Amino acid sequence: MPPKPGYQNRIELLQGTLDLLILQTLQWGAQHGYAIGNAIRTHSGDLLQVETGSLYPALHRLEKQGWVKSEWRQTEANQRAKFYTLTATGKKRLLAERDRWSQMVMAMSGVLNAAGNEA
Question: What class, spelled out in words, does domain 5-108 have in CATH?
Answer without folding.
Answer: mainly alpha
